[in-house]
Amino acid sequence: MAGDRGRLFLTALLVYAAFLNPRLANAMTWASLDAAVSFVDTGRWQVRHGALYGDRDVALSGTRPVVGPPPGLAVALVPVYAVWKPVDGAVDGLEGFGAFHVFATLVLGATASALAAGEVAALLFAFGTPAFLFATAIAPTTVTR
User: Model pTM?
Assistant: First the structure.
């Protein structure tokens, strides 16, 4: 079963990578990438590249622009950018954000999807095959009188 889950993980990862759309068109994704990049670069929770995406999904904290949507994605992107920056350098333009977006999508999105595919397959095996009936049939039962 472990070998099957490994093959399923790799297959899901490759399918996700093959169908990845590298175009960075969603303003919420832009703002999250920008917040992660700005945090690693400056140590402050802000966005510094809003002009690249029209300041959409950006809010103000006092006079400082910050990511507008909930920060979960930006927080998840911080360690990914911390790994990216020493390898490829700071992200500051359209091409840099596009390349970082593809890398982050493969690291976070593809991996999460592939792991989920493996877990779903395990659950389907556990509950959708005779293994479930066998396991429940040999469970101890109590008889009350």
Answer: 0.75
Identify the DSSP state of 71.
Answer: T
Q: What tokens does 7 get?
A: 């093959």
* pLDDT tens profile 84-137: 999 999 998 999 999 999 999 989 988 888 888 777 777 777 776 666 666 566
Instruction: List phi, psi (to 5°) of 65.
Output: -75, 135
The whole-angstrom separation of Cα 19 and Cα 29 is 18
- In eight-state DSSP terms, residue 49 is -
Identify the helix (H) or strand (E) that includes residue 61: strand 58-61
Helix, strand or coil for residue 133? helix
Q: Which of 137, 129, 133, 134 is nearest to 1 (CA)?
A: 129
Query: What span, in angstroms and rounded, lies between the C-alpha atoms of 24 and 99?
Result: 10
Helices (H), the chain: 2-18, 27-42, 72-88, 94-104, 111-128, 130-137
Residue that is written with structure tokens 């994704």 in the block:
29
C-alpha distances (whole Å) from 58 to each of 7, 82, 92, 97 are: 41, 22, 17, 17
CA-based nearest residue to 76, from 122, 25, 36: 36
